[in-house]
Amino acid sequence: MQDDLGIETLLNLNDYVISQDGGYWVKIEAWTVLANDNIPHGIRYSLTLHEPYGKRILGYDNSHAIKLPKKYKFAGQRLPYDHKHRHVSDRGVPYEFTNAHQLLADFFAEVDILLTELLK
Predict the structure, then answer these.
(1) pTM, rounded to two decimals
(2) Residue 2 has what pLDDT?
(3) Alpha-carbon gap, residue 17 to 26, rounded angstroms
(4) Which residues form the domain of 68?
(5) Residue 1 lies in a domain
(6) Which of 22, 43, 82, 100 could, after both became Cys, cross-link 6 (CB 3.0–4.6 A)?
Protein backbone atom coordinates (compact mmCIF):
# COMPACT_ATOMS: atom_id res chain seq x y z
CA MET A 1 0.00 0.00 0.00
CA GLN A 2 1.38 3.42 -0.87
CA ASP A 3 2.37 5.83 1.89
CA ASP A 4 -0.89 7.78 2.29
CA LEU A 5 -1.92 9.02 5.74
CA GLY A 6 -5.48 9.55 4.48
CA ILE A 7 -5.93 5.82 3.99
CA GLU A 8 -6.31 5.35 7.75
CA THR A 9 -9.01 8.03 7.77
CA LEU A 10 -10.81 6.40 4.86
CA LEU A 11 -10.62 2.95 6.47
CA ASN A 12 -11.93 4.34 9.77
CA LEU A 13 -15.00 5.65 7.90
CA ASN A 14 -15.93 2.16 6.65
CA ASP A 15 -19.67 1.47 7.07
CA TYR A 16 -20.45 5.06 8.08
CA VAL A 17 -23.78 6.49 6.96
CA ILE A 18 -23.86 10.28 7.13
CA SER A 19 -27.19 12.13 7.02
CA GLN A 20 -27.42 15.12 4.70
CA ASP A 21 -30.01 17.88 4.30
CA GLY A 22 -33.34 16.97 2.72
CA GLY A 23 -33.18 13.32 3.76
CA TYR A 24 -30.25 12.53 1.47
CA TRP A 25 -27.47 10.35 2.89
CA VAL A 26 -23.89 9.29 2.22
CA LYS A 27 -22.51 5.80 2.72
CA ILE A 28 -18.78 5.06 2.89
CA GLU A 29 -17.26 1.62 2.49
CA ALA A 30 -13.50 1.00 2.43
CA TRP A 31 -11.28 -1.96 3.15
CA THR A 32 -7.77 -3.14 2.33
CA VAL A 33 -6.96 -5.55 -0.48
CA LEU A 34 -3.68 -6.73 -1.92
CA ALA A 35 -2.27 -3.97 -4.09
CA ASN A 36 -2.25 -4.90 -7.78
CA ASP A 37 -2.08 -3.23 -11.20
CA ASN A 38 -5.75 -2.21 -11.00
CA ILE A 39 -5.73 -1.14 -7.34
CA PRO A 40 -2.16 0.06 -6.69
CA HIS A 41 -3.16 1.87 -3.49
CA GLY A 42 -4.49 -1.38 -1.95
CA ILE A 43 -7.89 0.06 -0.98
CA ARG A 44 -11.24 -1.08 -2.29
CA TYR A 45 -13.79 1.70 -1.74
CA SER A 46 -17.29 2.88 -2.48
CA LEU A 47 -18.47 6.39 -1.55
CA THR A 48 -22.10 7.00 -2.46
CA LEU A 49 -24.77 9.68 -2.15
CA HIS A 50 -28.37 8.46 -2.00
CA GLU A 51 -31.73 10.16 -2.36
CA PRO A 52 -34.14 9.90 0.60
CA TYR A 53 -35.68 6.67 -0.75
CA GLY A 54 -32.31 4.99 -1.22
CA LYS A 55 -31.53 5.37 -4.93
CA ARG A 56 -27.83 6.10 -5.54
CA ILE A 57 -27.33 9.41 -7.34
CA LEU A 58 -23.54 9.78 -7.05
CA GLY A 59 -20.79 7.26 -6.47
CA TYR A 60 -17.02 7.05 -6.42
CA ASP A 61 -15.66 3.51 -6.44
CA ASN A 62 -13.22 1.00 -7.81
CA SER A 63 -15.32 -2.14 -7.69
CA HIS A 64 -15.06 -2.84 -11.42
CA ALA A 65 -13.32 -1.68 -14.56
CA ILE A 66 -15.19 0.76 -16.75
CA LYS A 67 -15.62 0.61 -20.49
CA LEU A 68 -13.85 3.60 -21.95
CA PRO A 69 -15.25 5.59 -24.88
CA LYS A 70 -14.75 4.04 -28.33
CA LYS A 71 -11.59 6.03 -28.97
CA TYR A 72 -9.87 3.63 -26.55
CA LYS A 73 -10.84 0.44 -28.39
CA PHE A 74 -7.29 -0.67 -29.10
CA ALA A 75 -6.04 -3.93 -27.57
CA GLY A 76 -3.95 -3.59 -24.44
CA GLN A 77 -5.66 -0.42 -23.25
CA ARG A 78 -5.86 -0.37 -19.44
CA LEU A 79 -9.39 0.03 -18.16
CA PRO A 80 -9.41 2.26 -15.07
CA TYR A 81 -10.85 0.89 -11.87
CA ASP A 82 -11.07 4.20 -9.97
CA HIS A 83 -14.09 6.03 -11.36
CA LYS A 84 -17.24 7.95 -10.50
CA HIS A 85 -20.91 7.62 -11.43
CA ARG A 86 -23.35 10.52 -11.57
CA HIS A 87 -26.50 8.43 -12.05
CA VAL A 88 -27.48 4.81 -11.38
CA SER A 89 -27.31 3.86 -15.07
CA ASP A 90 -24.04 5.72 -15.67
CA ARG A 91 -21.22 3.24 -16.44
CA GLY A 92 -18.73 5.62 -14.90
CA VAL A 93 -16.03 8.04 -15.92
CA PRO A 94 -12.39 7.66 -14.87
CA TYR A 95 -11.34 9.18 -11.57
CA GLU A 96 -7.64 9.87 -11.02
CA PHE A 97 -6.91 8.56 -7.52
CA THR A 98 -3.99 10.53 -6.06
CA ASN A 99 -4.52 9.83 -2.35
CA ALA A 100 -7.31 9.04 0.08
CA HIS A 101 -7.62 12.57 1.48
CA GLN A 102 -8.08 13.95 -2.04
CA LEU A 103 -10.65 11.22 -2.78
CA LEU A 104 -12.71 12.26 0.26
CA ALA A 105 -12.33 15.96 -0.57
CA ASP A 106 -13.37 15.46 -4.21
CA PHE A 107 -16.34 13.28 -3.28
CA PHE A 108 -17.70 15.63 -0.60
CA ALA A 109 -17.16 18.68 -2.83
CA GLU A 110 -19.28 17.02 -5.51
CA VAL A 111 -21.88 16.01 -2.89
CA ASP A 112 -22.11 19.67 -1.79
CA ILE A 113 -22.55 20.87 -5.39
CA LEU A 114 -25.16 18.24 -6.19
CA LEU A 115 -27.16 18.83 -3.00
CA THR A 116 -27.10 22.59 -3.59
CA GLU A 117 -28.66 21.95 -7.02
CA LEU A 118 -31.22 19.46 -5.70
CA LEU A 119 -32.31 21.44 -2.65
CA LYS A 120 -32.99 24.76 -4.43
Answers:
(1) 0.81
(2) 47
(3) 6
(4) 6-118
(5) no
(6) 100
